[in-house]
Queue: 2 jobs
Job 1
Amino acid sequence: MSTKWTKEYRREYNIKYWKKWRLKNRPYIKKVCIICGKDFIQTGNYQKRCNKCNILICQYCKKKFVPKKKDYKHKFCSKKCYSNSIKGIYPVNLKGKRGTRPQKRKISKCNVCGKDFEHIVSRNRKYCSRECWNKRNPPILFYCIECKKEFWTYKTHRTSKNVFCSQRCANGFNQRGSKCKFWKGGKTKKNKILRCRAKYKRWRNKVFKRDNYTCQKCETKSGQGKKIYLHAHHIKDFAKYPKLRYQIENGITLCNKCHYLKHSHKFQNK
């Protein structure tokens, strides 16, 4: 391809030879404009107006525009101009139908401030304003039975006599001992009960996080296809020192093998 075939040259070439082809094969027809009555050369197949009469004026912004459809029924240049022109005008279809029937109203007393206010009968309102509605159920101070902490909550949420600050405290109080549905007369050993509690599990997780889930003796860690079972070992014995059971300083992370060396018995892979 030669260098002379640039975009500008191609455009000029197409216009020049297209005009020649059009004049030969499909020559322009002279027509009379419907509006002004002047003669004009037809450029489109269905053109009935000249180029001056083809332009319309918007009724709202009064700008000139060429309509997309050739029926020339457009009054506005865009939807925005149409919507702005309708603002504040009552719809013609709803005249004499909307709002003609008077609404029944009544006076009632506010449950919070005690003031009289007027409202529609169909709406059974109890409060005169949004401020009174917000004050309808103020929070009350409660004491948790399990952890004995103070907390604020709403009265409607507490139907039972026993009040708890969280679901954890409620489960601990209602599902302990003979209250639990799986109770079999106190068969389980005390050591297992203490080690299966949530308090012990929380202590164990804190020890693992502190030691970055690595054994503090052999420095092994699970990963890269290896599974290493970790244990939280009590430095001072669990049975002899009950006060130090849940202190993080008294715990150390060991793997299954290193923990076996500390004690004489074997451990399950848990």
Job 2
Amino acid sequence: MRHFFDNSAFSGTPFGPLHIKAMPLLFALFVCGGLCGCKPNETKPKETKLAGQVFIVTQGHESIKLGLVDVLLIDSQQVMNFLQTKNPEIASEQAALKNQCDATEKEFTAANDAVHEFSNNPDYLKIESERDLYMINTNTLRSYLKCWDDINYDLKIMEIKEKIHAELPGSSRTAELNSELFNVLGQRSHSVPELETNTLTTVMQVAVQLEKRETFERAKQAELAEQLEIATTNRDAARTRLETFSPSVDTYFADFSPAVFQKTTSDADGRFSFTYPLNGTFVIFAKTERMVGAKTEKYCWLVNAPLNSETATVFLSNNNLIFDDPDQLLKFKPKRTQESQTH
């Protein structure tokens, strides 16, 4: 049996005497070639390891850790696409409030104009059912409407004159009545002429008609004032609704069902974690609620996940609730309802 390195063993072969000395070199090349032929280790993509916690601090400065909260990691573009579909719906709701505001503004203007028109021109309301108020000496009625006291003086004058007519001329009673008549005539304003009739009956008819008209106008003024008050209340309420308009969280996210990149649930201490591509753009979304006495507090978060950082921390708490929209993701900021307050 020949030794492995016996030169005769390699006679007639490429590994003959001329080549045996090259064995160390060939061996080195073989090893090197083998190593060079292997695929290099692929570089693992860099990732962001995010640690987070969900908690609420009450007005009494008590920290409440929220466990069993589903926390979603969603591709940012998917969220933006969804919100763009919701914005027209919310804008339509806002436009409806604007139309209501415009309508109540017109109602207020009409009611206000009616009050001023009636005050400046009482005769403009000559409606059919009140025609009888204007049938007896309308010009006299119009004059005496502003001088109601003069009617009482005229009634008193006519009463005294009838008494004087019933007395004997030159009697002491006649003198007393004449003195009383003189006093009454002095008290009368004379801003309008005395009534054209010389009978107490006609004067009473005019007085009754004026009283009816005043009663009607007082009632009409009260009616117009009430209508103006209602129109003012409706206008102010519509203005407030428009000025304070903001959609509810449910309006935005009731039908939000995205394809989730990752989903986790907070533990008993409210902690959660995600691992995602370092250069990925994601949004963190979470909703939960808790009972506080007989009331339900509702919480919701929609915040950008940290970008280009191998380690990151996110706290979902009071200062980044969706009602504050810290990352300005929403065109219309959701309203903070009474149920959403923290106590």
